[in-house]
Fold:
Amino acid sequence: MIEFKYEHEKSIFGIVKRPIANISLETAHAKINTTMCIDSGADISTIPLSVGFTLGFRQNPDDKILEMRGVSGFGFPYIIKESFLILNSTKIKIRLAWAFIEETPLLLG
Structure:
């Protein structure tokens, strides 16, 4: 069983506890250690524009630009990329939604 820490954040509902995971994302170009908010209802993990650039992602001509919408209805463009995710010494290949905006959290879906 894996246990996660909780980050306390202010919201319109007061202080909420958000589950977070300390992970690494790795590509052939880079490896970063970061914290991602865990969203068990998310279909895919998301990263903002700058994190994708740090991992060496670039838009290719064959990348299909998609639009993601959350519960709020706010949408943003993204493309699918692959990376390795390392959590507690376990390394798995995952698909990421690389957002073309900065205003999206690092979300572990």
About this structure: The chain has one helix and eight strands. Helices lie at 49-54. The radius of gyration is 14 Å.
